């Protein structure tokens, strides 16, 4: 029993440790972002308008940013081969982990698909709330042009909406073509569809440019919930401490600014690394290769003997 446990830890322990760290990072990001948007003063009025859909959409977006950055790293094959071949850096356990790079890539891809469903569903609720909870008190918060505007019209006439639809379509194509039956029957469909990831990342970095969600910039001069002169239909909730401070009156109107796009901070590094790695592989693949022999062995095993100038096989190739 003890020998089996030690063998399992030696062979599989590292993989499960990385899996637990990855799941912990996803969980922490989701909960931390959810609490920020549900309790943060700068999002008080936006939360009143959109409700829990705001928190879920932003929390799932944080998880998507993380996994969209991580999903590229296991596909840097030349870099992984180099690390695997450096004995001073790569131990046996490290090489075992590097051999699981494709599994980690698939796990990140599944997470992107699942949280995209959550993100899109939450934003569909947000579009309905933008229309139904149109604010006359804070016009800057409104994404809808008027109360009762068709949510589908909001989606199709805003940058976040249009880019979101394109991202869903591309992700759906990648997901379907990644299925086992398509990879086995027609690998070219899987390969060329996966190359749409370049378009996916470009659109992803444009997705937040529209500034659909805004935060309050002057929470000190305008504490959320303070009494405003000439206030209209929106209900104000004033606590006792606020009433004791200048009778709970606002010193100025609330000011709002759209969020600056942050996705590029997450994905630009891994994306540039992957592009450099792909360019390196392209230059190496342009060298001619001479096929010396093709031998068919039993059990459908095919042996290829090739010659390539300045090439030396390394572990993992």
TrEMBL record:
One Pfam assignment: Ferric_reduct
Keyword vocabulary terms for this entry: Membrane, Oxidoreductase, Transmembrane, Transmembrane helix
UniProt-annotated location(s): Membrane
Membrane topology, as annotated: Multi-pass membrane protein
InterPro entries: Fe3_Rdtase_TM_dom, RBOH/FRE
Domain Ferric oxidoreductase: from-to ranges: 81-204
Keyword Oxidoreductase: yes
Keyword Transmembrane: yes
Residues annotated as transmembrane: 20-39, 104-125, 153-177, 189-210
Protein name (Swiss-Prot/TrEMBL): Ferric oxidoreductase domain-containing protein
Biological source species: Goodea atripinnis
Lineage start: Eukaryota, Metazoa, Chordata, Craniata, Vertebrata
């Amino acid at each position: 029993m003890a020998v089996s446990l030690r063998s399992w830890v030696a062979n599989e322990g590292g993989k499960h440790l990385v899996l637990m760290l990855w799941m912990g990072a996803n969980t922490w990001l989701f909960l931390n972002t959810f609490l920020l948007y549900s309790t943060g003063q700068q999002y008080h009025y936006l939360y009143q308008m959109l409700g829990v859909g705001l928190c879920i959409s932003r929390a799932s977006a944080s998880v998507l940013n993380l996994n969209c950055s991580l999903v590229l790293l296991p596909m840097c094959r030349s870099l992984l081969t180099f690390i695997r071949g450096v004995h001073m850096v790569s131990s046996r356990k490290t090489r075992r982990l590097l051999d699981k790079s494709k599994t980690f890539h698939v796990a990140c891809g599944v997470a992107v698909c699942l949280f995209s469903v959550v993100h899109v569903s939450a934003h569909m609720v947000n579009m309905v709330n933008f229309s139904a909870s149109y604010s006359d008190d804070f016009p800057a918060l409104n994404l809808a042009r008027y109360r009762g505007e068709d949510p589908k019209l909001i989606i199709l006439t805003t940058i976040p909406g249009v880019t979101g639809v394109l991202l869903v379509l591309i992700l759906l194509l990648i997901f379907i073509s990644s299925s086992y039956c398509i990879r086995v029957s027609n690998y070219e469909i899987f390969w060329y569809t996966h190359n749409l990831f370049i378009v996916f990342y470009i659109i992803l970095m444009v997705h937040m440019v529209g500034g659909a969600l805004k935060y309050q910039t002057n929470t000190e001069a305008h504490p959320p919930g303070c009494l405003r002169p000439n206030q209209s239909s929106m209900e104000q909730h004033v606590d006792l401490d606020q009433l004791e401070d200048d009778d709970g009156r606002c010193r100025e109107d609330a000011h709002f600014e759209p969020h600056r796009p942050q996705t590029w901070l997450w994905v630009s590094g891994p994306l540039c690394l992957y592009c450099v790695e792909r360019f390196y592989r392209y230059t190496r693949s342009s060298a001619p290769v001479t096929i010396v022999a093709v031998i068919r062995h039993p059990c459908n095993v095919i042996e290829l003997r090739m010659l390539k100038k300045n090439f030396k096989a390394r572990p993992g190739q």
